[in-house]
Automatic annotation (TrEMBL), chain A:
GO terms for molecular function: 2 iron, 2 sulfur cluster binding; metal ion binding; nitrite reductase [NAD(P)H] activity. This is Nitrite reductase (NADH) small subunit. InterPro entries: NasD-like, Rieske-like_NirD, Rieske_2Fe-2S, Rieske_2Fe-2S_sf. Residues 20-121 form the Rieske domain. The keyword Metal-binding applies.
Automatic annotation (TrEMBL), chain B:
[4Fe-4S] cluster binds at residues 647, 653, 687, 691. The keyword Oxidoreductase applies. Residues 6-311 form the FAD/NAD(P)-binding domain. Pfam families: Fer2_BFD, NIR_SIR, NIR_SIR_ferr, Pyr_redox_2, Rubredoxin_C. GO terms for molecular function: 2 iron, 2 sulfur cluster binding; 4 iron, 4 sulfur cluster binding; flavin adenine dinucleotide binding; heme binding; metal ion binding; NADP binding; nitrite reductase activity. It comes from Lutibacter agarilyticus. InterPro entries: BFD-like_2Fe2S-bd_dom, BFD-like_2Fe2S-bd_dom_sf, FAD/NAD-bd_sf, FAD/NAD-binding_dom, FAD/NAD-linked_Rdtase_dimer_sf, NasD-like, NiRdtase/SiRdtase_haem-b_fer, Nit/Sulf_reduc_fer-like_dom_sf. Signal peptide: none annotated. Gene3D superfamilies: 3.30.390.30, BFD-like [2Fe-2S]-binding domain, FAD/NAD(P)-binding domain, Sulfite Reductase Hemoprotein, domain 1. This is Nitrite reductase (NADH) large subunit.
Amino acid sequence: MDTILNTYNTVKESEVKVWFKAAEVSKFAKDGGVCVKYKDKQIAVFNFQRRNHWYACQNVCPHKMEMVLSRGMIGDDKGIPKVACPMHKKTFSLESGENLNGDLEAIATYPVKVENNFVYIGFSE
Amino acid sequence: MKQIKSILVIGNGMVGYKFCEKFVVKEAAENFKITVFGEEPRPAYDRVHLSEFFENGDAKALEMAPRSWYEEHNIELITNERVTDIHRASKTITTINDKTFSYDYLVLATGSSAFVPAIKGVEKEGVFVYRTIEDLEGMMAYADKLKKSNPDAKAAVLGGGLLGLEAAKAVMDMGLEPHVVEFASKLMPRQLDTRGSSVLKNKLETMGIHIHLSKATNKILGEQSITGMEFGEYDKINVDMLVVSAGIRPRDELGKTCGLKMGTRGGIVVNNKMQTSDPEIFAIGEVALYNNMIYGLVAPGYEMADVAVDQILGTSETLMSPDIDMSTKLKLIGVDVASFGEPFMPVEKGYSIIFENKTKDLYKRINVSHDGKKLLGGILIGDASDYNMFHQIYLNGLPIPEDAEELILGARGEGSSSFGSAMDIPDAAQVCSCESVTKGAICSSITEGGCNNLADVIAKTKVTTGCGGCKPMVVDLVNETLKSLGKEVKNSICEHFEYTRQELFGVIKIKKLKTFDEAIDTCGKGDGCEICKPLVASIFASLYNDTANKEEVIQDSNDKFLANIQRNGTYSVVPRIPGGEITPDKLIVIGQVGKKYNLYTKITGGQRIDLFGAQLNDLPAIWKELIDAGFESGHAYGKSLRTVKSCVGSSWCRYGMDDSVGFAIELENRYKGLRSPHKFKGGVSACIRECAEARGKDFGIIAVEGGWNLYVGGNGGATPRHAQLLAEQIDNETVIKYLDRYFMYYIRTAAPLMRTSTWLDKLEGGIDQLIKIVVDDSLNIAAELETEMQGLVDAYQCEWKQAIENDDMVSRFQHFVNSEDTDDTIVFVPMREQLQPIAWDK
């Protein structure tokens, strides 16, 4: 199972080598999440309209290794933007990836940019 | 170099284990090596909860600690090895396998064995004692054999004490007709008075346990195996099995043979340091005779373990309390029974106040000193919610109301509790006996330890983490302490809304707020979270009957996809089958859909069919096929009406008094899609045999002569609760009228995720108050509640139909936004001709 987690590593904006063109902005629910397929990776992308910000992270929840984070609800924990896993309500910071209500491993996060009405996700490979 | 001393613990029961547990956390423990001998094959287990072994058959779950715990703490655990001799001169012991070990200190925790009276025929096959897991396994195997030849087989328990009644529950769970035979004229003779016993007896008899008091058994009847018990010449009962639970005898034979001082009726004499007549040999638990008494309860045994640990380590000031508190509270087969202090009261010591209500199986007795200032003891049956407080008052000699009857009758009449506050008990009072936490420790964790709420206090002090019985009192203490510091104690929803659900419901209604952003911008702060978003969505639904398709991003994650997420991220599909009535044609459709999409199918507890393992992408297509065949959403994912279960009723049943199926269908169709603070369920039975189990539901309707009886606030689940009677002998229209009012009032006032049973518990005035509101319209809101409900009923639409008819909504069910692929990480494995998700890694 660790092998799944090993495929997801946080990418900083400065490390981006590929900006993957995911889909049109209109396909992304406002204040909700969807899942983007990039090679063998599943990436959860959130259009956090209330904060006027986009976030991306691994779709797999490190708790039970299910591909479900994109179906979770977003919100904030004392100002930190977060996503809550739909399985057991484990919450993760969308900025640092840190598990906010437990001590699970942090999830990997990815940079997102919007250009010409398209959403791009940054990968280092 | 330090000399390592050797401690041998003989006996690996609960108390022997406790000795080890308390020993290894001490600093000086590293100077000792502990070796434990157990004669049973497995490590120490929780004998108090032995009957749970039936429910799960899992011996490991009862273990006090796994074998690895002993290894981690450098304790050598030798099981299946009985110690046969103690040689005090050489300070050694030998075991049945002739192994020899030497000791510096010896701890005897050999416990007790079941006392089997010398009755003629007691050796017959089918006679058991109730003591160990092996005893239980023997009973279970015998019961299985009996039931195969005789489905109505009966089993008697000899002894109507605490353990005997537990054993009666065990044989009842095995499917045998239970009989309890007691020599004394009352049940639990040590804890209860005659009147209390008679209330308990009535209650147990209604549950199907036959009770025979004042019976001295002469003889066990039968050839090879037991067929009955004879009490007098013409007085006998036929039973096929007997469980002897007539008391305990200390396992003191080791003490006897090595010449320790013994009690005249057994037990090894100890002083208040738990030392026997040989100062290097200690005895603890049920083998120890302290104050000339054997104590058969766990708590004194644990205290003895504590004393022995400190004495061996040289902390000599820890001594056994001179008076042992024998107070107990337990749930016997679902009935609260508690006894504390001096349960009986000789007239020279004080007087008693007694309250008894046989219709409700309630009995409360308190014993008060002659001057009326001290609570000396008492008995509670049927409702022991005041036990913690009474126990603390008794232990700490706290002042009681001038008119002592207020303690049990309450200032306002029956039922309500009457004291000021939990804060009145002294700081030294032990609130959590499992973790030994005092009231002072709880309060100072807040005033000095920086704790800000219940969760902090629990994390810091471990209070409530044992049996959890102290939780109500801890909650009171935490809230009162926070209040005294001027900190607000409020059940606000979350960090984003400083309101309770009921308050927010009112604000949203008055301001006519329609979207989450409006709500949080008007009366909250921040961006919301997984707690407040679905709550606000549920309020919108209750006010405007929006389906879960509106603002799907704030819906609970199951509502968002109109399906229940399962262990591997697939979903389950549950079409509505009102009242459990379904045509063969519709059954065929469900079968075809299940086959086509390779779904695991199972009948649910609510009389419908659940199809598991649907991939997100397939949900719209599956539902289209079901809807085309005339099905609707079953809202199995929602905090809303689930099902109205019914028995087959008067249309077929020869006992049926009314058309339960027809009425169940009408009610399920009326309230379907109605979203509420939590899920709710109903049941309709056509006679008092209650085949629909309606009284275990949020609303239950039972046909009686002259109409329906309506019950509300029942629950199965983690805290089973029978629904309470709201109205009797009413017609169909009145049932609907009252249900409309009851639901709407619940929807308006309940806290989030609060089932009706908890809500009714917390409702001031309880069921009586609810009857006033719903039946007598004391708040003058009945018409308004009915109108609101009718509005919701009229606005119903099937949200799955709505979803599949709208392309935007259908796109929500794609797994990937940029690909038609399904999730290829999902793995199924075969199971009994169907499939299931692959197991989770630990």
